[in-house]
């Protein structure tokens, strides 16, 4: 058995940051333009093969003042590429009306990437999906005569070409393509089209060929890519999307094109009704190491930072919080150990760059579900090996080139010189952290709410759009609002009413989606909704009717437009059929009774969420649980610069605004199978806040307790480490000098490293124990072999410092190496703060 404690393995220490910075500097683009080509092994930058670690960050999902920090943290995490989609409906909301300001300042975003000496990938699409409203296609396209989206259709191709040309020219004018000295090395046309090509048959094939020719004719000077398109036309490079492209994707059929991975999903986007989504750091690292082991040289994390679907930008049922489980969470805070573990992986793979890019590949089985993949330049003594264990439940030992190696279950061990393990995907050496939410005093300061009721429930005679049947919702609202009223009236005679008093009539509403609230004779009778999978639904609610004229009003609500699939232009929403059951004379079908329609809410038409609109209505004190009501209060911004959130637990469903800006839809009353809402905390970007006098407003559909809403701040100041002296984990940091690996830190024993977020230091050691501690970050407990000096040693080494390194060995903490049950493990939880540190133990 190879001694893994003596066999040096990668650890994160201060020297690693310097090594990564030095590696990143190799990717600086020249001002005079760069030639981007490719072969089977990689993209080629000015004749030099390279490896690429990319992360998706979407500019409209974060305010511009957050972009520099996000890009900087991505670079710090070992990335050298930032990838983003381009959002057509954000840039051209109306034909010929363009928006490239604020969150849609595409040029500014790529210039910031360039300032950080990173590459960029622009995924123009212009269909992007991205869980974005209408897949990024503007609503007005649906009204172009004879249009069919994303097929060999002349009206669609005309508008698509115009937009692609607009974007390419805008980027060219700013000299942002690598051929001009800019950061962009790849452009994408279309998006995940292969399944649609099957649906559209020959029209799909002719369309995708047209799209490739149209794109390459724009002459950007950089290659074009198509994701999930195995047979990409011409010189366009096909790429993979998925969780495990190293095992599920054979690569391009054209063997002259490289293996590129445009979407490695770091978790899963979530919709209302979904439980929490997780994907471990170990699994992501495994997938990337595996991809590089089979010849891949570019992997993009989707998402590296998800951000927030502000306003009405999210697709059908998609929550405002987007990919919160990414390496940088919704608020742009480091999510550990995911961020740090991937940083370690990137450093390890860079140690192997020469062999990966120029070595001769080979593979050999090492046993059932065990494998070695090798890249070697024998004459230069350059070699890298990837030892894979595909068993999901069993650790194992393999023999490779005469030495034995421990390979954990479902892991890849990277041997940067075919001898020394510098990284194991299953062994996490990076610290953990815990996100905490803190009550802000502004919750109770001036917690005085005012309300404005929507007004009387509309009746048929008050509507302006009247037809025999209920109309389709998107065609009326034109994606300007989520809300559409349907109203009708009908007369009942005494003979129509049920004879038995215990029988009550039932209102049945069939809807194409997404949610409805029904009112009978101005009385609320119930709600119904569909789901992301089954958007169409039928609501059945009991009601009271009377002899004479009865009035029915239905408020139909959409939660974004669909973002994928063939014939997207035909997707529908809104009320479809309405019947009343349980009458003495049988079922009464009101579908063709004559319907009136009223687009948008009264408050929306008055724009009461804006400073000017607020003055057009009468507000009165109120905190009661009322439906269809606008609520507002004023609040000051919490002190400091920690992210701010609004806790909407006491509310139901509606829309949230701060200072006139929509922060997205909320839906707290819809709970997943575990009994909790999918999202109840909503991001308030500090860019939107003034020091004092901010206006918090929400439109509540169902009713709630606005006075119980809380204002919170967010921190990730609790940092932890949990490392065993005996664990075959990373114990040294390495750099490569020519063909040799050289240890730059460590003494051969495992090192636990703690590092605070920027501008903060370790103020307190909350927990420290060497021996056999148990638990997880935020909930550690002592074991039976606890070394009493543990906390004293850790406090002396760490308190008052931004970063500290702790040797994991029993003699350091006075631990008993012979204690029965010891795991020789060090567990530490520390608290970071901007405040002066507590005195270290003497």
Kindly state the percentage of residues in helix. Answer: 10-25%
Distance between the termini: 42 Å
Q: Any idea how many domains?
A: 5
Note poorly predicted spans: 1-31, 837-842
* Total helical elements: 16
* CATH fold descriptor of the largest domain: TIM Barrel
CATH class call of the largest domain: Alpha Beta
Structural class of the helix and strand makeup? Answer: alpha+beta
Q: How would a textbook summarize the main sheet? A: 8 strands, parallel, barrel
Mean pLDDT: 92
CATH superfamily of the largest domain: Glycosidases
What would the principal axes of the Cα set say about the shape? globular
CATH architectural type of the largest domain: Alpha-Beta Barrel
The count of DSSP E runs of length 2 or more, i.e. the number of strands, is 46
Q: Spatial order of the strands in the main sheet? A: 4-5-6-7-8-9-10-11
Q: What portion of the residues fall into strands of 2 or more residues?
A: 25-35%
Radius of gyration, in angstroms, nearest whole number: 30 Å
Descriptive overview:
- It is a single chain.
- The chain has 842 residues and is an alpha+beta fold.
- It has 5 domains: 50-351, TIM Barrel, CATH 3.20.20; 368-429, no CATH class; 436-453 and 605-714, Galactose-binding domain-like (Jelly Rolls, Sandwich); 460-598, Galactose-binding domain-like (Jelly Rolls); 746-833, Jelly Rolls (Sandwich), CATH 2.60.120.740.
- Helix content is 17%, strand content 32%.
- The strands form 11 sheets. Strands 4-5-6-7-8-9-10-11 form an 8-stranded parallel β-barrel, surrounded by 4 helices. Strands 19, 33, 36, 38, 42 and 46 form a 6-stranded antiparallel beta sheet that branches.
- β28 (575-581) and β29 form a beta hairpin.
- α5 packs parallel to α7 and α6 packs across α7.
- It is globular, with a radius of gyration of 30 Å.
- It starts with 13 loop residues before the first helix and ends in a 9-residue tail after the last strand.
- Mean pLDDT is 92; it is low at 1-31 and 837-842.
